[in-house]
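Re: [ENG-882] Designed sequences occasionally contain unexpected residues at chain ends

Forwarding the minimal case from QA. Structure tokens:
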């Protein structure tokens, strides 16, 4: 990740090497937080563009970390479910 712009309640960052898959789930988890004013991303060019995120909240860095932890937990649960399904 690369910070593009940072203000008190706004953080714009670039997510290098990722696509809509990670960005969309991160955006959804950010928007589930009560203190988020807005969270969005844009990929300016579908083939070579890097996703650029904008998060507006009282503490954007904390909000992003919380959303990332939530996604990480969901991925671990999904992985366990897949492993258990194939063991049956």
């Amino acid at each position: 990740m690369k910070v593009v712009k940072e203000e008190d309640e706004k953080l714009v960052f670039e997510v290098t090497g990722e696509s809509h898959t990670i960005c969309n789930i991160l955006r959804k988890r950010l928007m589930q937080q009560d203190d988020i004013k807005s969270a969005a991303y844009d990929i300016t060019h579908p083939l070579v563009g890097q996703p650029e995120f904008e998060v507006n909240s009282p503490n954007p860095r904390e909000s992003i970390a919380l959303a990332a932890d939530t996604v990480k937990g969901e991925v671990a649960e999904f992985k366990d479910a897949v492993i258990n399904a194939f063991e049956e």
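QA comment: On inspection the terminal residues look reasonable. The domain at 2-87 is CATH 3.30.1360.10 (Gyrase A; domain 2). Proposing we downgrade this to a documentation issue.
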